[in-house]
Amino acid sequence: AEAIARVEKGCVARGVITDLNASFPSLAETARVYDWCHDKLSDDQKKKWREWMVKEFEAMKKEYLEGYHNYGIKAAWSFALAGYALRGDEPAAETMLQEAYEKRWRGLILPACKAGMAGGAWAEGEGYGSTTCDSLLELAEAARCADGKDLVSEAPEFFSGRLAFEMFLEQPGVKDGGRRLWINGDMNRLRNWDDPLLQRLELQEMLKGTDL
Question: Which of 95, 140, 157, 188 would staple 118 via disulfide (CB 3.0–4.6 Å)?
Answer without folding.
Answer: 157
